[in-house]
Amino acid sequence: MKSKNLAIASMLLAASMIIGVVENLIPPIIPFLPYVKLGLSNVVIIIAILLLNYKYAFAIIALKSILVPLLVANPVMILYSLPSSLLSVALTTALLYTRRLSIPVISVLSAILHNIIQLCVAAIMTNSLVFGFLPYFIIIGSVSGLITGIISFVTIKYIPPAFYKSP
Q1: Is there a contact between 56 and 31 (Cβ–Cβ < 8 Å)?
Q2: What is the CATH number of the domain that holds 25?
Q3: Engineered SS bond to 105: which of 1, 20, 85, 101, CB 3.0-4.6 Å?
Q4: Domain encompassing residue 100
Q5: What is each CA distance from 29 to 32, 38, 120, 123, 164, in whole angstroms?
Q6: Dihedral (C-alpha) 20, 23, 25, 29: value to the nearest 10 degrees?
Q7: How confident is the model at residue 167 (pLDDT cuts 50, 70, 90)?
Q8: For residue 72, which phi and psi values (nearest 5 degrees)?
Q9: Residue 142 burial (CB < 10 Å; 0-12/13-18/19+)?
Q10: Can you say whether residue 99 is alpha, beta or left, with left for phi > 0 and alpha for psi between -120 and 50 degrees?
Q11: Straight-line distance from the first to the last Cα atom of the chain, in angstroms, rounded to the nearest whole number
């Protein structure tokens, strides 16, 4: 079972990296907020938490947060991506394991936390007040988190148990 989980985790890592690279190639959705992305690779992370466990999800998000910026020639993005991704996966994991909230709601909360952490990193790195963007980031995080959460919910329903359960 361990090798099967490792193979599944490897496929999920590859999928999240492909999605991450493609998202970085798409022009900005909102011109005055050029670093805003939909975050579709987070679908893969939610699936990893639910199908495997949080340890695999943390490994996938950590590797993705380091490798995608290197692949798109933007290594500074690691400083923004890694802490915000790790903390949002921690929140997602905790909330998923409580089973009190739906996947879309958890995804919205996680996306908002991700954006807030990135603003904190930006404030530290640029030594400027970037929190004026917070209302926009909350709205964008809510919309992208909802989309990601709905896609995750639907995707999980269609993954056959034979894919991730041992015989």
Answers
A1: no
A2: 1.10.1760.20
A3: 101
A4: 2-164
A5: 9, 9, 22, 23, 35
A6: -150
A7: low
A8: -95, 15
A9: middle
A10: left
A11: 9
pLDDT tens-digit map of 86-120: 999 999 999 999 989 999 999 999 999 999 999 99
Burial of residue 121 (CB within 10 Å: 0-12, 13-18, 19+) is middle
Here the tokens at position 134 are 């917070």
pLDDT digits (tens, 9 = 90+) for 26-43: 887 767 666 677 889 999
- Please say whether the dihedral angle defined by the alpha carbons of residues 132, 91, 67 and 151, taken in this order, is positive or negative: negative
Q: Which of 87, 86, 67 is nearest to 77 (CA)?
A: 67
Q: Are the beta carbons of 83 and 127 closer than 8 angstroms?
A: no
CB atoms within 10 A of CB 89: 25
Phi, psi of 102 (to 5 degrees): -75, 160
- Per the structure block, which two tokens stand in for 31? 């011109």
Structure tokens given for 9: 């985790």
How many CB atoms neighbour CB 126 within 10 A? 9
> Number of structural domains, the chain?
1
